[in-house]
Amino acid sequence: MSVGAALLLRSTEYGGVGIVLFAGAHWLCDLAWLWFLSAAVHRSGRAFGPRFSRLVVAACGLFLLTMGVDFLVDGIGALRPS
Prior knowledge:
The protein has about 80 residues and is mostly helical.
């Protein structure tokens, strides 16, 4: 967030056009990266089989769930008065 906020603030030096260009470039980079990941996962499913693909997706899901719970626990802990 800190890097993105600094880039967004810098883009405001160019007015509304700078913000639109920054957002557009950011979204295009997201699109390219997610397309690459999608293609890689699709091809790996063919190469390694459906069982391996399900295992990888389950492991990634478990990781995301763990990170989400950790995020919630940290947030709730920050709300408690000291």
